[in-house]
Amino acid sequence: xSSVFKFCLILILSLGASHSLAETxxxxxxxxxxEAEARNNGFIGDESDLEMILIDAYGSKIIRKMxxxxxxxxxxxxxxxxxxxxxxxxxxxxxxxxxxxxxxxxQWLYLxxxxxxKKISSRNKSSSFxxxxxxxxxxxxxxxxxYKFNFIKDGKxxxxxxxxxxxxxxxxxxxxxxxxxxxSKKHLNAVxxxxxxxxxxxxxxxxxxxxxxxxxxxxxxxxxxxxxxxNVQTKKESIFKWNNRxxxxxxxxxxxxxxxxxx
Length: 263
Prior knowledge:
Blueprint: H1 3-21, H2 25-40, E1 45-55, E2 61-71, E3 79-86, E4 94-98, E5 106-111, E6 116-119, H3 136-139, E7 147-156, E8 162-170, E9 178-184, E10 190-196, E11 202-216, E12 219-231, E13 237-247, H4 258-261
Antiparallel strand pairs: 1-2, 1-13, 2-3, 3-4, 4-5, 5-6, 7-8, 8-9, 9-10, 10-11, 11-12, 12-13
Domain Uncharacterized protein TP-0789: 78-263
Keywords: Signal
Signal peptide: 1-22
């Protein structure tokens, strides 16, 4: 075999191999989502003091304070509990979410004025959570099994951070037609999300900031301390703030039950 023919053969084989190994945009988007999920797993339990700031179109603010707890569940979505502490009109209200990888999330709201637990219907998950710009769907965890992914491009966030930009499209009932997510290459967390309504028009945006590092069982985990949600259609805004956050907390599972909501 001549050296020229051998070189051509190697070139053809190498080109064929690289082509077969090339990812589609769908495969790359899913891979990035899986890498982000793996990077953020292992927190065991998350406990914090929360502030939810509601800002109307004229800039007036209402501040609500909560206690938040999240239980990591192996092989399924997480369980979360939010307890409102003040002001008086919402004090004692509790929100319990059991998120799932494939099935619809289960969500219950305890209303102290009625002393009863109300189940949130999956048809209502696009509704506002306690008057905020966050929906019940946003409060549930964003399990990757509930979306189809597509890699758009690499780019920069508004703060100049290197990010992957991916699109995720819900595969089941959702208040959104799609979401465009910027994922930090540094810590594989979302730093910006654009939400599109069922008409495929931009509805709202979320910016995640003030990331803090936590260590659980030797693993470094990053979490945003602020999420700023802006509704571009109504001009209303809402901010979630995490204070005194602890990861690695070991909760009893019976804390995250319907029965416990009435205690």
